[in-house]
Amino acid sequence: MTCRVFIVLFFVLLAGCKNASADKEPNPKSSGADVPHDDEPEHEGLAKRVRLSPRALSASKIRTAPATTEVLSATVTLPGEIVADPDRSARVSTPIAGRLTDVRFKEGSKVTKGQALGTVRIPELGKVRGALAAANAKATAARTNADRLSTLADKGLAAKQEALSAKADADALDAETSALREQLAALGGPAGNNGELVIRAPVSGVVVARDAVIGQPVTTEQTIAMIADLDEAWFLGRVFEKDLGRLNLGARAEVELNAYPKEHFEGTIEYLGKQIDPAARTVTARIRLTNRADILRIGLFGSARVSVDEDAKRTPALVIPRSALTEIGGKSVVFVRHADDDFELHEVVLGDAALGKVEIVSGLREGEQIVTEGVFTLKSAVLKGSLKEDD
């Protein structure tokens, strides 16, 4: 009996040890711990080399230039903002007080010179038109009478004095008619019988501001629209006194705007102000810019790098054109073309920047052929390849 009890106790203890051991083993399905995927390869980084098909290579119009060691142009940085060219913009107002009866434009609308923007009802305009019609009728009758008397006087059938008086009256009415016609033209030209004046665009461009509502009374001092032709615009940079002597008219400039840090606009200094701002102690430098891609906006802030003649004081550095740079994965990179038409991705460390060029601190060697045009095509190929790998 004692032996049986001992055997039963032995097997009970043995089962308990197995259960405890099983509880200690982790369950990969129920555990929150990361389980390695032995059957899944590690994700690779971006491709370091790109090769295009002959057709894609031809279509991409890739151009290269060697990385060279040279002296970057010395520059002066000028803070400033974009403004409209006054000769390519206009403030629209009514030449005489009245009430708006029609508005035919919106903010952002493109308009052409002479296009009707709206109508203003002007009671006084009807009076001027009526006075002109009356004066014109009187002048016509007076001229006919003067001609008749002049003919009779030549035949001795009328007094010469009477003919002269009739001619003087006709001349006076002609002068009155001419004055009323000029007055009507000054008010905006002929109007209908209801006394409405059509307001027209004085220049072609884009409506950048509108203050016009149907039924709104308007005065001659009020601007109902502002139109600007922004195909070209000005960057007005602020030149501090200490830098004024370093700048010259015609100096090359490169403008970078806060809103578009990756875009650069080239121009030249076409005017340096003749008066110092007494508060800021600066002079205005005017740089004309072409509105590439229609992204310039009035009031955008930025800075201009302006070239100055001080290259002798700077040391040579490895530089590349700015157009060769792009960004992938938050890093600055360039593409190097090899003899077999492979393109290798190089991560670079940037240094100083000048007009259209950037210093390379590391990541390139002098003489390597850097892609300067067609960078977007190669960048797209790299990103497309990385997406396929992730799939």
CATH class of the largest domain: Mainly Beta
Distance between the termini: 70 Å
Number of domains: 4
Unreliably modeled segments: 5-14, 17-44
Number of beta-strand segments: 24
Q: Which sheet architecture does the biggest sheet show? A: 6 strands, antiparallel, barrel
Oligomer: single chain
Helical percentage: 25-40%
The averaged pLDDT comes out at 82
What gyration radius follows from the Cα positions, in whole Å?
A: 41 Å
Structural class: alpha+beta
CATH architecture field of the largest domain: Beta Barrel
Beta content: 25-35%
Strand arrangement, largest sheet?
4-13-16-15-14-17
| Helix-strand pattern | HEHEEEEEEEHHEEEEEHEEEEEEEEEEEH
Shape: elongated
Number of helices: 6
CATH topology (level 3) name of the largest domain: conserved putative lor/sdh protein from methanococcus maripaludis s2 fold
3D architecture notes:
The chain has 391 residues and is α+β, with helices and mostly antiparallel strands. 28% of the residues lie in helices and 35% in strands. The chain contains six helices and 24 strands. It has helices at residues 2-24, 54-60, 123-154, 160-186, 241-244, 375-390, and strands spanning 49-50, 63-66, 68-70, 74-83, 89-92, 98-103, 110-111, 116-121, 196-200, 205-210, 217-218, 225-228, 232-240, 252-257, 260-272, 282-290, 301-308, 317-321, 326-328, 331-337, 343-347, 349-353, 357-362, 369-373. Strand 19 and strand 20 form a beta hairpin. It starts with a helix and ends with a helix. Belongs to the membrane fusion protein (MFP) (TC 8.A.1) family. Residues 319-379 form the CzcB-like C-terminal circularly permuted SH3-like domain.
